């Protein structure tokens, strides 16, 4: 493929992305190499997707074995990998039932549709209102951008699906004012990812659980970004000790291979009778085979304990850098989903910092104009963390 170049993006692809000026060609663990064989330390993890790093041998083996057996049969049949992964997910979580799809947006679409369908079945058509939070992000379908609490993602796509209300995140009083007899569901991220890496305050998720129980509404946890070990728990609800009615998972669940899942209980899942929802590629054998291999590693106690150790190392290093440059007003997050909020004098410059890091061979993320976001592999080596922080130090020196 040497005949292609980064400039071909501007010629042949729709301009809805602004990709970095490099073209990665291979990866191993938490390192990437571009077409010029330049090496990068990866603190971005493909936006919290590459949970086990690049080209993990167990995932490569699972994909290769399945690719030599069976690729696709459609949902007219069920395959062994889908059955095995669904069983494993229910063994490890509160859920009794699993719906497979290809992405987080599709998992959230399924969750929102199920919530309305369940309320329609049990309470009637008037109970259809969904409550979400400002600053939230739930995907790019029309339903999920309407549900998400960031207007920039829905601008220009009206008319949007109705029956959706938004209240400030971490504000139980505001939530209490809008939940009522017609509320069918509340959807929330245990940590707002795209909204700035903002964790739920103490008691917030438990308060939402109580409000939903009071009003016969379903509680949906969007764990697309916080799930699959990202917070140091298999799913963030486990650390919060608050159980949702529906949970969505994707990103790290496939370790880089596209897969999404919606998890729920027997009672709620019963509303998805034959023909009510589907996905052509959902539950495909290759995605499920890789997902099962990834889940076995992620759910291992040593992996989850290692996330906290790596969290501590990163937080310590970031604080040392902040002592040196005085650039971050707050360093927050859980596990290996971290956000560094820029001080007022640096407002709006998260992309500048991200670009400076890239120039020094470090891949990072942003979460809005004021937050540098880090979501590296759950297995990132201590040496890679040290090297990545060294390169971030150089980037901060350039900017300051």
From TrEMBL:
GO terms for cellular component: cytoplasm. InterPro entries: Ac/SucOrn_transaminase_bac, AcOrn/SuccOrn_fam, Aminotrans_3, Aminotrans_3_PPA_site, Class-III_PLP-dep_AT, PyrdxlP-dep_Trfase, PyrdxlP-dep_Trfase_major, PyrdxlP-dep_Trfase_small. It is an enzyme of class 2 (transferase). Binds 1 pyridoxal phosphate per subunit. Its cofactor is pyridoxal 5'-phosphate. Gene3D superfamilies: Aspartate Aminotransferase, domain 1, Type I PLP-dependent aspartate aminotransferase-like (Major domain). One of its GO terms (molecular function) is pyridoxal phosphate binding. Its main location: cytoplasm. One of its GO terms (biological process) is L-arginine biosynthetic process. Pathway: Amino-acid biosynthesis; L-arginine biosynthesis; N(2)-acetyl-L-ornithine from L-glutamate: step 4/4. Its EC number is 2.6.1.11. N(2)-acetyl-L-ornithine binds at residues 140, 279. The modification N6-(pyridoxal phosphate)lysine is found at residue 251. The keyword Plastid does not apply. Keywords: Amino-acid biosynthesis, Aminotransferase, Arginine biosynthesis, Cytoplasm, Pyridoxal phosphate, Transferase. It is found in: Cytoplasm. Pyridoxal 5'-phosphate binds at residues 104-105, 137, 222-225, 280. It catalyses: N(2)-acetyl-L-ornithine + 2-oxoglutarate = N-acetyl-L-glutamate 5-semialdehyde + L-glutamate. NCBIfam families: arg_catab_astC, argD, PRK01278.1, PRK05093.1, PRK12381.1. May also have succinyldiaminopimelate aminotransferase activity, thus carrying out the corresponding step in lysine biosynthesis. Belongs to the class-III pyridoxal-phosphate-dependent aminotransferase family. ArgD subfamily. Homodimer. This is Acetylornithine aminotransferase. The gene is argD.
């Amino acid at each position: 493929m040497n005949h292609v170049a980064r400039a071909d993006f501007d010629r042949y692809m729709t301009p809805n992305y602004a990709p970095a000026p490099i073209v990665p060609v291979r990866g191993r663990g938490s390192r990437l190499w571009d077409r010029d064989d330049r090496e990068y330390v990866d603190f971005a993890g493909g936006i919290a997707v590459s949970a086990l790093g690049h080209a993990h041998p167990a995932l490569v083996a699972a994909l290769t074995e399945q690719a030599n057996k069976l690729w696709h049969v459609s949902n007219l049949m069920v395959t062994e990998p889908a059955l095995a992964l669904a069983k494993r997910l229910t063994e490890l979580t509160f859920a009794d039932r699993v719906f497979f799809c290809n992405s987080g947006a599709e998992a959230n679409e399924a969750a929102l549709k199920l919530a309305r369908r369940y309320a329609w079945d049990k309470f009637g058509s008037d109970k259809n209102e969904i409550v979400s939070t400002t600053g939230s992000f739930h995907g790019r379908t029309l339903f999920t951008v309407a549900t998400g609490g960031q207007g920039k993602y829905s601008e220009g796509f009206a008319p949007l699906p109705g029956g959706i209300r938004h209240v400030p995140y971490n504000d139980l009083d505001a939530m209490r004012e809008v939940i009522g007899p017609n509320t069918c569901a509340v959807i929330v991220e245990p940590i707002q990812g795209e909204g700035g890496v903002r964790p739920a305050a103490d008691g917030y998720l438990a308060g939402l659980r109580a409000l939903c129980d009071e009003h016969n509404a379903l509680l949906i946890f969007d764990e697309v970004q916080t799930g699959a070990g990202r917070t140091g728990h298999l799913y963030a609800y486990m650390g919060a000790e608050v159980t949702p009615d529906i949970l969505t998972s994707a990103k790290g669940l496939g370790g880089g291979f596209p897969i999404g899942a919606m998890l729920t209980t027997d009672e709620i899942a019963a509303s998805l009778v034959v023909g009510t929802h589907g996905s052509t590629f959902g539950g495909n054998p290759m995605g499920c085979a890789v997902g099962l291999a990834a889940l076995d590693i992620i759910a291992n106690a040593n992996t989850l304990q290692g996330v906290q150790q790596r969290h501590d190392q990163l937080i310590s290093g970031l604080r040392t850098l902040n002592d040196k440059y005085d650039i971050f007003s707050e360093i927050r997050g859980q596990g290996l989903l971290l956000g560094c909020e820029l001080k007022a004098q640096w407002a709006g410059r998260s992309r500048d910092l991200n670009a400076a890091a890239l120039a020094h061979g470090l891949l990072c993320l942003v979460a809005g104009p004021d937050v540098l976001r880090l979501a590296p592999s759950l297995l990132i080596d201590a040496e890679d963390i040290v090297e990545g922080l060294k390169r971030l130090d150089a980037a901060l020196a350039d900017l300051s």
